[in-house]
Amino acid sequence: MTRENGLGLLLVLLLPVVGASRPGTVVRLNKEVLSYAAEAGKAPLQRALQVTVPNFLDRSGEALQPTRIQILNVHLPHLHLKLIAGFGIRLSAAANFTLKIFHVPEPLHLMLPMELLVDAPVDQCSIGTPVVSISDCFSFFDEAIVLDDRNRAAPALLVPLQKHIQAVLQSKLCLRVSNVVQSLNVHLGTLIGLSRVGPESQVRYSMINAPTITRDYISLDVNAILFLLGRPIMLPEVNTSFVLPHHVGTRGAMVTVGLSQDLFDSALLLLQKAGVLNMDITGQLKSDDNILNTSVLGQLIPEVARQFPEPMALVLKVRLGAMPTVTLHTNNATLQLQPFVEVLAPASNSAFQSLFSLNVVVNLSLQLFVSGVRLRGTTSVLGNVQITMASSNVGFIDMEKVQILMDTVFERPLLDHLNALLGLGIALPHVVNLHYISPEIFVYEGYVVVSSALLYQR
Ligand SMILES: *[C@@H]1O[C@H](CO)[C@@H](O)[C@H](O)[C@H]1NC(C)=O
Ligand SMILES: *[C@@H]1O[C@H](CO)[C@@H](O)[C@H](O)[C@H]1NC(C)=O
Ligand SMILES: *[C@@H]1O[C@H](CO)[C@@H](O)[C@H](O)[C@H]1NC(C)=O
Ligand SMILES: *[C@@H]1O[C@H](CO)[C@@H](O)[C@H](O)[C@H]1NC(C)=O
Ligand SMILES: *[C@@H]1O[C@H](CO)[C@@H](O)[C@H](O)[C@H]1NC(C)=O
């Protein structure tokens, strides 16, 4: 990337999201993701609860005796997350703290059962990422259990000791939980990171309004902005917002991602503007499987045979002036390309001369798949390639004959080129270290759905 492009990109990133009003994409985190998150969150939360407890000052004797206290273990078997409609997430956990009291003459082991209740609203941050905060955090303690039964501690010690421990834990635990939530937010912040689309192009997703939260899901309206050389690519007249219907995709999937027609149109516009859909198909002489030469063409067009008595290799210049269109019907995605093809032959002065040019229409069936975090595609030709003459410098051309020739020389290179491009794909909305697992794709009228499980893995 040149310095100028880099600067342009930086400016774009610093600017508020340009004309951001259309979602284009919906990421719906279903309640199923919560049991996974709870399972994955147990270990970090358990570690976070391992706080230090200051010495206990025993005021029962005549001298003030400091007693050291250590948390030996935190056992957190139950962690439960639940969605609260219009609000966010409620966390409830039950844990047992095993504590060692360095009491003279003999140490004492206590088990302190605790319940933790945290209410965490989920909102939208000003930079367009989801953000979790804590509105309420409570810890409830049960009676401590003395583990060494031969060591019968005096209640005169136990009662103030337990009060001390509870007071410490109460003040520290919620702070620790808040730290865990903060690191989660840092993670969620990576949603707005730029992902590469092609050599000079990127996509960036960001939330455009507060999440919709029901008992069953948290739904994020996400805007996808595509950049070419650091500049946003905008579709001309789009003003409808995309609403993802309720029961789409796989039932019980952790995440349902809805991708609107707009996203596909924008991605194609990007490819077209970047010029990467254009290609040259070149002929080779003395090749049995490459028929792009003037002697083959001369058999169909007399003027070509007359102008090129010596065989010459031909070049097909394929240019996409019009934007390709994608059509999404139930279980059926198609792509239409309308390339302009110029047939060129070498002229005397090492330049090329145009023999004739064609308007081509080709319908392709588009198969979509997800690998990594990218939505990718592969195409095959549907029906016939439709060819009409645009101009000729070699007189009359019998289109029926040229059609067969074009089908042969045009189809395979076009498909190879297109499939290589679509195979690179476009990143779906994602955050660092969170992977789409066993994704399934569904094509509906006007949009595509990806249903997937998620896996957190560093
Ligand atoms: C805590 O320990 C007690 C006694 O062993 C046990 O009955 C209880 O189920 C434990 N609670 C948790 C949350 O592990
Ligand atoms: C926006 O959509 C409405 C309703 O579909 C339409 O009447 C209006 O012309 C559109 N505006 C633009 C700028 O496309
Ligand atoms: C032109 O193409 C045909 C078909 O591939 C091939 O048989 C022939 O040898 C080629 N002519 C030259 C001069 O390369
Ligand atoms: C998909 O649509 C194309 C074009 O409309 C059609 O030719 C094709 O038969 C359809 N395929 C299926 C599986 O419906
Ligand atoms: C391409 O598909 C469109 C819409 O289904 C159809 O009208 C058109 O005839 C097709 N063209 C070719 C060349 O197959």
Verbal overview:
There is one protein chain. The protein is an alpha+beta fold and 458 residues long. Strands 1, 9, 10, 11, 12, 13, 14, 23 and 24 form a 9-stranded antiparallel sheet that branches. Strands 15, 16, 17, 18, 19, 20, 21 and 22 form an 8-stranded antiparallel sheet that branches. The protein has helices at 3-14, 32-48, 155-188, 261-274, 294-298, 302-307, 399-424; strands at 24-30, 56-58, 65-84, 88-102, 108-124, 130-132, 136-141, 145-146, 194-198, 201-207, 212-213, 217-228, 231-233, 255-260, 279-282, 315-319, 325-329, 332-337, 340-346, 352-371, 374-392, 426-427, 434-444, 447-456. The chain binds 2-acetamido-2-deoxy-beta-D-glucopyranose (NAG) (5 copies). The site of one 2-acetamido-2-deoxy-beta-D-glucopyranose has 2 residues, from loops.
Topology, element by element:
Layout: H1 3-14, E1 24-30, H2 32-48, E2 56-58, E3 65-84, E4 88-102, E5 108-124, E6 130-132, E7 136-141, E8 145-146, H3 155-188, E9 194-198, E10 201-207, E11 212-213, E12 217-228, E13 231-233, E14 255-260, H4 261-274, E15 279-282, H5 294-298, H6 302-307, E16 315-319, E17 325-329, E18 332-337, E19 340-346, E20 352-371, E21 374-392, H7 399-424, E22 426-427, E23 434-444, E24 447-456
Antiparallel strand pairs: 1-12, 1-14, 2-3, 3-4, 4-5, 5-6, 5-7, 5-8, 9-10, 10-12, 11-12, 12-13, 14-24, 15-16, 16-19, 17-18, 18-20, 19-20, 20-21, 21-22, 23-24
Bound molecules: 2-acetamido-2-deoxy-beta-D-glucopyranose (5 copies).
What class do helices, strands and sheet pairing give? alpha+beta
Low-confidence stretches: 1-5, 11-21
Main sheet: strands, sense, barrel: 9 strands, antiparallel
CATH architecture of the largest domain: Super Roll
Assign a percent range to the helix content: 10-25%
